[in-house]
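Try this one yourself first.
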């Protein structure tokens, strides 16, 4: 992929870090919606009567804790949810020998075609955001949990790479609903298609929509002077944006060293020297 490609619809996300409390509701909702099974070999017994079980899971969306590195009264922390960036120039697509990952021509979502994946993990090595995970085990669900699976999401087998896809099945459902209603499936209103993470966020920190549609809130937000994108200097053109009024948080988007000349965040997340 030698040049940026424009799509008629460009689904994107804006995450307001100043609103995020790190509660993890987005991760839980993502796991539930996308049938992410607990990993059987990683069950941990917690000491105590009844030895309650804590499940370690694969995560398509991980929440990271950030720190400004200051000790004492000046110490500050923030939380950064990290889904797949759905890059405009995804390095994972070009390295996959099985063509198991692709960039959707209408919407710009990076897909993962599980039956094609044979687990080489080249895509994981090429992703600068660590947004892909490898499924080491066959999915095993506790009794009763299999009854809660999302029917429109396939259960992945052992030996394949998994990733966030902005709950792509919800987009397909929204388009079908628009067709039934006699409406244009390619001109969905802002609330017609919402990923599980954005829907579950109790503080409203996750905004979602078509970043090319002026009627969607994300179109306005990406032009805020407080908006930035992660590792933008790599030229991956991520479709996930972040917001924060704290300068130290915005600086960590590229995490330049003190003696390294780096660009300054400006406007719609673009970086300029």
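Now uncover the answer:
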């Amino acid at each position: 992929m030698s040049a940026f490609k424009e799509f008629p619809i460009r689904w994107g996300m804006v995450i307001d870090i100043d609103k995020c409390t790190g509660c993890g509701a987005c991760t839980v909702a993502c796991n539930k919606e996308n049938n992410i099974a607990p990993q059987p070999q990683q069950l941990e017994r917690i000491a105590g009567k009844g030895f309650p079980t804590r499940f370690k899971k694969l995560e398509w969306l991980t929440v990271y804790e950030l720190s400004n590195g200051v000790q004492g009264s000046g110490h500050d922390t923030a939380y950064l949810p990290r889904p797949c960036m759905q890059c405009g120039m995804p390095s994972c697509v070009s390295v996959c020998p099985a063509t198991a990952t692709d960039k959707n021509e209408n919407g710009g979502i990076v897909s993962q075609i599980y039956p094609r994946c044979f687990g080489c993990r080249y895509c994981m090595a090429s992703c600068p955001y660590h947004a892909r995970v490898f499924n080491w085990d066959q999915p095993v669900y506790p009794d009763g949990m299999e009854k809660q699976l999302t029917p429109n999401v396939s259960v992945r087998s052992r030996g394949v790479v998994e990733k966030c896809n902005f709950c792509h099945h919800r987009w397909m459902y929204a388009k079908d609903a628009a067709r039934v209603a006699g409406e244009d499936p390619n001109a969905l209103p802002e609330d017609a298609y919402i990923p599980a993470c954005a829907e579950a966020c109790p503080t409203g920190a996750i905004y979602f929509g078509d970043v090319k549609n002026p009627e969607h809130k994300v179109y306005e937000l990406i032009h805020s002077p407080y908006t930035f994108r992660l590792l933008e200097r790599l030229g991956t053109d991520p479709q996930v944006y972040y917001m924060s009024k704290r300068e130290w948080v915005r600086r960590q988007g590229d995490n330049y060293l003190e003696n390294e000349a780096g660009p300054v965040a400006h406007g719609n997340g673009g970086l300029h020297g």
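Discussion: The helical segments are 25-33, 91-95, 122-126, 168-180, 196-200, 217-221, 247-251. The chain has one domain: 11-252.
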